[in-house]
Give the backbone structure.
Amino acid sequence: MDWGIENRLSRLIREDGRCQFLPVDHGYFQGPTSCLEKPSETIKGLLPYADGLFVTRGVLRSSVPANCQTPIILRVSGGTSIIGADLSNETITTSIDEIIRLNAAAVGISIFVGSEYEKQTLTNLARLVDQCEGFGIPVMAVTAVGKELEKREARYLGLSSRIAAELGARIVKTYYCPEDFEKVTEGCPVPVVIAGGPKCETELEVFEFVYDGIQKGAIGVNLGRNVWQSPHPVPMMRALNAIIHKNSTPKEAQGLFEELSSKQ
Ligand code: 5RP
């Protein structure tokens, strides 16, 4: 592996081989998402516990201090909105010059396998890999499902993740599924991180799916709404950190969450 790629990945993935990314990129297609209206306030207490911040260039420049030491994963696909015709009709939104100028540790791009724009989003990924690898910048592929949340099952996720890796992604972000998630991670030759999805009913549900996903081969998470839409975002972030980096069980994480929340 090229030194630049290896160096950037080593900033994002800790020595234990695990990572906890914090995504705040949701506004790029859904506008001022609940609890993310003011990104600078949302991230303030959470950044110290994040191994990477997933963000667009607009929010990075406007809302993240330039002395931020958390590595940046720059969201570089978009061009669609939740009220538009088709979320999958994405393009690359950020030039390689911008990616370098903003000192990104990695970039993230969505692919929509099985959608009307499958070929376009897969070509976007391939083109981005061509541009970024030349400068030692790893690409994280996001296997997006658009509004079709029912696609979150192992066969589909395994197919999308494998295709992303084949096209050159260095990390794949995909959804967890309770059935056969190990088939998704085993079929993907690059590290897999778990995306969150809409907020769960209870914290324990989140701790359980993250724990199970890691036992089944994921190296970490990229969890947004289940962290910052919680009434206690910092305790949530820290409890997840304990599962990811300290091998805590869901029960232990719940205990830590309750202890930290009660002190707030
Ligand atoms: C949006 C994204 C988000 O980064 C991803 O969905 C993770 O956030 P959440 O846990 O809130 O789903 O890629 O397209």
Q: What stands out?
A: The pocket of ribulose-5-phosphate is lined by residues 23, 25-26, 54, 110, 142, 144, 195-197, 222-226 (CB under 6 Å).
